[in-house]
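Async update (no meeting this week)

Hi team, since we skipped the sync, here's where things stand on the single-chain job. The sequence we agreed to prioritize is pasted below, unchanged from the tracker. I ran it this morning and attached the output directly underneath so nobody has to dig for it. Comments welcome in thread, and please keep replies under the output.
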Amino acid sequence: MAVHSPPTPTTPTPRPSASTGTALRVGRVPVTTWAMGVVGAIAAFLGGFILLGGDNQSIGLGGDVSWQVSDIDPLWGYGLLAAGILAVLAAATLALRARMAPATIVAEPRSSWRDVAGHAGVFVVVNAFLWAQDIALGDGLNYALWITVPWGLGLAVHALSTYGSSRRDLTRDG
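Output:
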C-alpha cells in the first residue's frame, strides 16, 4: 500500500496588471491618465472659447502666433469641444477604475532622486512654454525670466538637499 502525501497548496505569484504596473503615479492613478484629463480639459476649453467667444477675441500665444476667433471655422470648435469632453470622461473613468482596483503589489519606496527628476521635468516643460510665449509676443523679455530664475534656484536647492541626504545615508550605511 502506497502512502500519498497531500498536495501542497501553491500561492500564485501576483503579476502586474494595467492598474498595478510600475508607471509613474499620483496616488493610485497613472500620470498618463492625469495628462489625458488635463489635455482634454484644455481642448474642451479652447473649443468652447472658439464657439462662444466674441468675434473680436483672439486665441493663441500672442503676437504672430494668435488668431481672431472670427477667422476660425466653427467645426474646429465643435471638434475640440467633443474630443475634449470625451478625453475628460475617459480620464475620469480610468482614474476611478485605478482607485477602485485592489492593490496587489506593494510599491517600492520612492527615490528622492526620482522626485528631483520629476521636478526638473516640470521645470523644463513649463519654462519652455513660458519662454516660447514670451518670445512670440515679440517685445522682449517680460516675465519668463522672473519665473525661471527663482524656480531654478528652488530646483537647485531641491537637488542639493537630496544630494546631501543621500551622502548622509551612504556614510551612515557604509
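Quick observations from my side:
Residues 41 and 124 are 22 Å apart (CA to CA).
Residues 12-21 have pLDDT under 50 and may be disordered.
Reply here if anything looks off.
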